[in-house]
Design a protein that fits this description.
single chain, alpha/beta, Diaminopimelate Epimerase, Chain A, domain 1, four-stranded mixed sheet, 7 helices, TPM_dom, Membrane protein
């Protein structure tokens, strides 16, 4: 059991999200997702969570495991071409995870997603959270445009574009 991790999670709350992502930043992320989804048939969800609850922490749940849970809970898998992508930020762990549906994951692979996560984390370490989020969305946009270009203007928007703030 990692007591330092538990302590960090217990002291990280909603205020941390508000300090990290202002309303204007959340608006910019939403706008970037809307613009992105006009260029391809995929769906992007950006989710940020300040910390995990105590029970998952005691069980040792990782940010990756939580991201996989949220991928299902937020129905990111529910796209016709299996090309939904979840960007998940767990603030207490300073960890970014990307979970992608099988249609786009088969084309990008683990190394591609990890490269985007590492670049976002590098930008976040500089305190540039909005810029890091936008860079991640931009990188995913290029991948989705390459593999799932827009078939026509005005395609169906299945998932919400507004960032999901949990906790």
């Amino acid at each position: 059991m990692n007591f330092l991790r538990i302590l960090c999670h217990l002291k990280t709350g909603q205020l941390a999200v508000k300090r990290t992502f202002s309303v204007a930043s959340l608006d910019a992320i939403e706008h970037a997702i809307k613009q992105s989804e006009a260029c391809h048939t995929g769906e992007i969800i950006f989710a940020v969570e300040p910390s995990l609850d105590l029970l998952p922490l005691l069980k040792g749940q990782s940010a990756r495991e939580r991201a996989i849970d949220l991928f299902s809970l937020l129905r990111v898998w529910d796209t016709p071409q299996n090309n939904g992508v979840l960007i998940y930020l767990l603030l207490a762990d300073h960890d970014v995870e990307i979970v992608a549906d099988r249609g786009i994951d088969a084309k990008v692979g683990l190394a591609g997603w990890e490269a985007i996560c590492h670049e976002m984390e590098r930008t976040f370490r500089k305190g540039q959270f909005e810029a890091g989020a936008l860079a991640g969305i931009n990188a995913i946009t290029h991948l989705l445009q390459t593999h799932f270009p827009a078939e026509s203007a005005g395609g169906e928007n299945i998932l919400p574009d507004r960032p999901v703030v949990l906790g």
